Amino acid sequence: MKRIGSTVLALLATLSLNAYATDAPGPKRPSVEQLQKLIVNQSPQTHVDKPDNDRITAKRIDIVDDKGTIRMTLSGQTPAPIIDGIQYKRAFNVAGMVLYDDKGSERGGFGTADVNGGMAVLALDHPAMDAIGWRVSPDGEVRFSINQAPPLIREPKLDNRLIPGVATPTRIEMLVGADGTPAIALNDKADRPRLRLTVTQKGYGAIEFLDAQGKVIHTLAPEADLR
């Protein structure tokens, strides 16, 4: 394991030091020559016809604790979410890993979602609702959200189990839009952005203050005022 780790670190160091051509037009990227030095296989195996003796091939692997409770699942089609002992439909299939607490409730995971164009997702959960979430969308947008903890509501008609998906505001949201525009927004308790840190199309750093209707009512952009 140490040898593998050292090799990976060496490759990363080589790439970071020598990969970029200083006079190449466009965004910085590794040169073809550097990439060719790092390529191990241009036609790697991505499909297995049948299991062999050198690895585990399975549709699903469950990791359990000493009491037999499933604490982690790795699957090409992750199971539908379990909240307080009840399993609900998942909005779309996600291939990846799911984490569970000591009661067997889903508390997070990461993977790739089977949506048009593909999407990479990561989440850590409150007991019955997403707490934080990362999303890399097909159009190139990258979004990170932090949600306020919702009230824990139990439903007598469901054996007094927790109700999932109770409405709660996203209080902090960071994103890089598909067009490359970065922003950090602070939202009020009604889930409305009220303050936003961004960079304008002209390249000025700006702080925007918004009203309850989402209209920018004041902007601080000191650099813009100097020009």
Keywords:
two-stranded antiparallel ribbon, 227 residues, 12-stranded antiparallel beta sheet
Write the layout of secondary structure elements.
Blueprint: H1 2-18, H2 32-38, E1 60-64, E2 70-75, E3 82-83, E4 86-87, E5 94-100, E6 106-113, E7 119-126, E8 129-136, E9 142-147, E10 154-155, E11 161-162, E12 170-176, E13 182-187, E14 193-199, E15 205-210, E16 216-220, H3 222-225
Antiparallel strand pairs: 1-2, 2-5, 3-4, 5-6, 6-7, 7-8, 8-9, 9-12, 10-11, 12-13, 13-14, 14-15, 15-16
Give an overview in words.
12% of the residues lie in helices and 38% in strands. With 227 residues, the chain is mainly β. The chain folds into three domains: 1-39, no CATH class; 53-148 and 155-166, no CATH class; 181-227. Strand 14 (193-199) and strand 15 form a beta hairpin. The chain is flat and about 65 Å long. 8% of the residues are buried. Residues 1-14 have low confidence and may be disordered.
Number of strands: 16
| Beta-strand residue percentage | 35-45%
What integer is the average pLDDT?
Answer: 84
Q: Secondary-structure element sequence? A: HHEEEEEEEEEEEEEEEEH
User: Reading side by side through the largest sheet, how are the strands ordered?
Assistant: 1-2-5-6-7-8-9-12-13-14-15-16
Helices and strands: which structural class?
mainly beta
How many structural domains does the protein architecture include? 3
Low-confidence segments, ≥5 residues, pLDDT <50? Answer: 1-14
End-to-end Cα distance: 56 Å
Biggest pleated sheet:
12 strands, antiparallel
